Amino acid sequence: MQKDPKNLNTTLELSKEDMRAYGYKVIDHIVAHFDTQNDKKPVTQASRAEMDDLLTEDIPLFPSQPDDVLDFVMRDIIPNSNIVSHPKSYSFVPGPSNYVSVMADTIATGFNIFSGGWAASPAAAELEIVTMNWLLEIFGFPTKQGGGIFTSGGSMANLTALVTARRIKCKEDFSKAVIYLSDQAHSSNIKAIKVIGFKKEQIRIIPTDLEFKISLNKLKNAIAKDRLEGLQPFCIIASAGTTNTGTVDPLDAIATICEEESLWMHVDGAYGGAAILSASGKQTLKGIERADSLTVDPHKWFFQPYEMGCLLVKNHNWLSGTFSEKPEYLRDIEGNESEINFYDHGIQLTRRFRALKFYMSLKTFGLEAFKTAITYNIDLANSVEKILRKSAFWEVVSPATLGIINFRYHPLGHNLTEKELDHINQNISRQVVDSGEALLVTTVLLGQVVLRMCLINPRTQLKDITDTLALCEKFGEKEIEKLSNNV
Ligand SMILES: *Cc1c(COP(=O)(O)O)cnc(C)c1O
């Protein structure tokens, strides 16, 4: 640190040469990462104490050499994260980013584009309209009347949707309003429902059937009963790709219920929606075009880096009617109706230029490449299912659906209890993760501990998966030995 107050860089600027050198260094690091990430281990684990040791420091009052700071970051901070775009990163919903979008984000940040209002950046607003129209078209929503907004992610898109649904259906008084979703719906929906002030008594968690789809019969019963009690059913949240199993709720049937009962239909397709770009996914997602609002997460299966979620709605006036406020300090930039101020379509005023990365990557690679990638992923999960079914070690717990498959180690010829199977599969996952070779964690389905793969990375190959299964089998065998030594 240079402790000379006279040396302070009070305009926070670097010289042109220093900026260049610094930038090239950063780019070299990122390119090296893209080039070598497949050869690294996807998993990092560290405790709070270890991270405290590494990173806790006092507020830096005086300057350091830019290169020293960068070197420290690249050596000690960046490697202490999982590589979510690694071919063997199977858990949660992976983040198979792409380099063009990374550069687009760099441009958006480099020029610090304000994507809140038309007046500040007409082209950014227009590009959000253009790319939103592409998405509306992809999902069969009307492009003239429809609209949407890019958000930080699916959680914010779901929140934005529910605020809108509540205003349209309940107006000011939502004290009797009731909302319906399945026990497999993503937790961000419950979070959003709570954030906007609904009580527990206003939420109906509808059980799912053996295929993890919302039970239509139980849904209809719940709505009917609530009406009899004088409550106001107002919204159903359907899942288009549950995070656990990839299951799609019966969208057409739910849309019909919503029409008959005059309910808002929100579809959470955060991860699964992108499957509409494949022929089989389009079949599975039939009815999605009947939703009033739809969440999709470009930072999942549309291959964008974080953060990018998206909410689509059937009528863009629903958003502006919900989120427009007219403070005096924004008076001068209101502009005319067709010039959209996206701060009027959602919660944020200051917004980064998210549309740019979606635009640049789609233009660079073409929608056909995205279609092929997504179709590849769905086929890959189907191939894994076939392999597992033929194996004497594995049991498929929930079949390949939109790139997700759940299975467990259950070797033939051993009489294992459910408790032992849970224990074995938990330990297989733990040892795989501890080895760092693959990110493969468990979930619980119908009370069973199972291994879950979400295969939305187009750079994952069948060999990556068979290698991982072989590793699991090795650990599984050891677990069986331990069990038989204990008796
Ligand atoms: C990931 C996910 C979300 C949450 O999205 P974030 O981008 O993580 O905020 C919501 N719903 C589903 C179905 C998801 O898979």
Automatic annotation (TrEMBL):
Keyword Lipoprotein applies: no
Keyword list, A-Z: Decarboxylase, Lyase, Pyridoxal phosphate
CDD domains reported for this sequence: DOPA_deC_like (cd06450)
Pfam families to which the protein is assigned, alphabetical: Pyridoxal_deC
Superkingdom field: Bacteria
CC cofactor: pyridoxal 5'-phosphate
N6-(pyridoxal phosphate)lysine: residues bearing it: 300
GO molecular function annotation: carboxy-lyase activity; pyridoxal phosphate binding
GO biological process: amino acid metabolic process; carboxylic acid metabolic process
Gene3D superfamilies: 3.90.1150.170, Aspartate Aminotransferase, domain 1, Type I PLP-dependent aspartate aminotransferase-like (Major domain)
SUPFAM superfamilies on file: PLP-dependent transferases (SSF53383)
Record family assignment: Belongs to the group II decarboxylase family.
PANTHER family: GROUP II PYRIDOXAL-5-PHOSPHATE DECARBOXYLASE, MIP05841P
Protein name in UniProt: Glutamate/tyrosine decarboxylase-like PLP-dependent enzyme
